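Researcher: Structure for this, please.
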Amino acid sequence: MPDNRMRARAERAREHRNGRRKRRLTLANLAERLGVSTATISLALRDSPLVAQATRERVKEAATEAGYIYNRSAAALRTARSNVVGVAVHDILNPYFASIFRALEDALGENDQIVFICNHQDDIDRQRSFVQSLLQHRADGVVLCPSVGTQADEINRLVEAGLPVALICRDVEGARAPVVRGDDRKGTRMAVRHLIAMGHRRIAFLGGRRQTSTGRDRLEGWRDALAEAGVDPRSQLDVPELMTREDGFAMAPILMQRAPRPSAVMCFNDMIARGLVEGLRRHGLEAGRDIAVVGYDDALDAATSTPSLTTVNSGGPQIGERAAEVILSLIAARDEETAPAMERTIIAPHLVARESTAHACPADGDGIENEEE
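Model: Predicted structure, token format:
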């Protein structure tokens, strides 16, 4: 028998003879002693903000007194943890998603999670390939702004396979995964009511992929506000599928050729709005003076552009922070083998009125007023 095995056996025999043999202290022992779950113990020993500071200190103190040493390598083997979370969105160049990603990455980084990102560009095959790679690399979870074409059964199969999944910004009906998103219908309704209160009656709607919940909800908010004011949405210009700054720029001459020309434009996002403002200026019109332009998302340059952009703030950083909390909770629930919470978090929007909107000229509306929401 090798010398090291002989020495180990002799040591165990001496401990037994001397009555000094001790039971190995485990995570479960600590949890039982403190009256908390093993997941709470594990998160506390990793300094996770999901556990209250007082509880973290109590757990660490008890572990120190008991001589418990947290073994990260063993924990990874037990839980198959990789400390990797995938994040997939459709347009990482959009400053709004950059704000979400920054908050999400900061929060996950505080919990020792590395972020892998995918810009799926609303290509369902790119999204599927990314998720498959995450599964192959045993990622801890995925935060998904689902691509056009994503079906509920695809998400549900991932959940059933044990991969924690959280959805952001877009809903997928029937998906058994928590969702963190803004109230898009309410936000657009607020913005259009603002335009109506300023006397506008010809209000175009530009953009949005109508196969997504976000595209449908923002369109419905526009329709809601027009109908409330007695304006038939079918009589207004509605152009779907626009998403980018280039799309907005290309719409400027089309709007100018329309008779009668809209006096105001509700854009699906800030990128379309900024492109439209630039295109209008190229043709001698100024947003806020000659035509009102409203964006959505309150992206980074909305306040500093010229003119500053009236827009709807839909809480990008809050969505990122909350999504991080949700995915970490799902990972902890998987480790503990408990049922995860299937909650929906809706971030309330608010309107930010700036220079790109102004009261309509007398010929553009009848000056009706409608209280903002």
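Researcher: Any notable elements?
Model: Residues 287 and 356 are 5 Å apart (CA to CA). The domain at 184-314+352-364 is CATH 3.40.50.2300 (Rossmann fold).
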